[in-house]
């Protein structure tokens, strides 16, 4: 009897479930879209946009850094599917028009946690997705990163800059993993005519797992203390996630099949970000300086002329507005955690030296 009762309960739930408003698209205009890493920060915002635009979205994620909670408001919707799958393994699904390939840890603590796995995700995972794209005739968009430019010797960085990356440093698993992923996309386009797009960016996170301590998250979560690595003179340029998502969708629907920077060209020293956040948060009492991180790029600013010219895209959310939304998000997140006694997902135990730990 229990399964029947469960089925009835699910059915009742599906009648009463409220979803965000979804546009109606005719079958001709409705795309079947796969998003790897769709339960992560960028992926879940992209999922929201594509679902609300009326497309059919399948999210594939192994929940290493992503959370079901980021997409749970779509569960049960007829246009939505969530698959727990690791992209390092082949994925056998049919009928896909577009693949947004975002699966990869993105913050240094997460990608350095298991560097071999990071490499496998970005190399074998990308190969698997390109193979799938070839088999089903889909377009693929690779989320690359401005980290492929390394510690750049050219400023600002345009898409034809080859980069300056340390291949054996602590960040190499991510930087070089993404560089190989770009090479794979290029090879698949030349040899197999797999149509692809790829993009490089840095965003302000309003929806990231709290344990992902990226620059701004460091600042906001540790609300009485801002931590800055090195002198804080290293520069970064951040865009708000809604700008990025709009850029990704325009890129996917364009004819461009080469790298495109999607970023905010407004560059600031990290210390300036810290001071701005200190003012916006109010409760922060001091800025603490930590030792410089190894291979931390000194300057970073995307040249976005290509995106403007070919996609008509540029970021529109001003920095302060993006930061305010981010701070609001983190306040709500902390409130949620306090009320729900959220316990961050435990990381698998480290295996003793000498034994493999790269699965
Ligand atoms: N957020 C940024 O500032 C930024 C900047 C540059 C590039 N990117 C790229 O954008 C993509 C998304 O970044 P994000 O900020 O949303 O990170 P995130 O960590 O929030 O999301 C990544 C998602 O990929 C999933 N994932 C990781 N390994 C996987 C695997 N082997 N199989 C299946 N799923 C896997 C994670 O569980 C998570 O849901 C990444 O590829 C990242 O390299 C992000």
From TrEMBL:
Q: Tell me its EC number(s), please.
A: 4.1.1.35
What is the top-level taxon of the source organism?
Answer: Eukaryota
| GN (gene name) | UXS1
Q: What topology does the record note for this protein and the membrane?
A: Single-pass type II membrane protein
Q: What is the lineage of its organism?
A: Eukaryota, Metazoa, Chordata, Craniata, Vertebrata
Tell me which cofactor or cofactors this protein depends on: NAD(+)
Q: What is this protein called?
A: UDP-glucuronic acid decarboxylase 1
Q: Where is the NAD(P)-binding domain?
A: 34-326
Q: Which family does it belong to?
A: Belongs to the NAD(P)-dependent epimerase/dehydratase family. UDP-glucuronic acid decarboxylase subfamily.
Ordered alphabetically, the record's keywords are:
Decarboxylase, Glycoprotein, Golgi apparatus, Lyase, Membrane, NAD, Signal-anchor, Transmembrane, Transmembrane helix
Which EC main class describes this enzyme? lyase
Question: Do you know which Pfam families this protein is assigned to?
Answer: GDP_Man_Dehyd (PF16363)
């Amino acid at each position: 009897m229990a399964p029947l009762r469960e089925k009835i309960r699910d059915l009742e739930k599906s009648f009463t479930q409220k979803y965000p408003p979804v546009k109606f698209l005719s079958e001709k205009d409705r795309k079947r879209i796969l998003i790897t890493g769709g339960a992560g920060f960028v992926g879940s915002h992209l999922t929201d946009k594509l679902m609300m635009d009326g497309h059919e979205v399948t999210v594939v994620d192994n929940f290493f850094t992503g959370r079901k909670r980021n997409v749970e408001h779509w569960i049960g919707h007829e246009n939505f599917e969530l698959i727990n799958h690791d992209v390092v393994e082949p994925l056998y699904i049919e009928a896909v028009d577009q693949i947004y390939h975002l699966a990869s840890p993105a913050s240094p603590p997460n990608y350095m946690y298991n560097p071999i796995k990071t490499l496998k995700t970005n190399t074998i995972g990308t190969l698997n997705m390109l193979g799938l794209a070839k088999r089903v005739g889909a377009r693929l968009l690779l989320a690359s990163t401005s980290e492929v430019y390394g510690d750049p010797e050219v400023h600002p960085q345009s898409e034809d800059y080859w980069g300056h990356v340390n291949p054996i440093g602590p960040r190499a698993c991510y930087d070089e993993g993404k560089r190989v992923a770009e090479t794979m996309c290029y090879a698949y386009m030349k040899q197999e005519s797999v149509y692809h797009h790829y993009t490089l960016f840095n965003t302000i996170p309003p929806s990231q797992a709290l344990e992902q301590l990226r620059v701004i998250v460091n600042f906001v979560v540790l609300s009485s203390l801002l931590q800055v690595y090195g002198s804080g003179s290293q520069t970064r340029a951040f865009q708000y996630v809604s700008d990025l998502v709009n850029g990704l969708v325009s890129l996917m629907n364009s004819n461009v099949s080469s790298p495109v920077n999607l970023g905010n060209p407004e560059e600031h020293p990290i210390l300036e970000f810290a001071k701005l956040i200190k003012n916006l948060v109010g409760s922060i009492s001091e800025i603490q300086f930590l030792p410089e991180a190894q291979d931390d790029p000194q300057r970073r600013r995307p040249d976005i002329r290509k995106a403007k010219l070919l996609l008509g895209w540029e970021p529109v959310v001003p920095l302060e507005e993006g930061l305010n939304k981010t701070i609001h998000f983190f306040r709500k997140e902390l409130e949620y955690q306090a009320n729900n006694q959220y316990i961050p997902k435990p990381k698998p135990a480290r295996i003793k030296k000498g034994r493999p730990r790269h699965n």
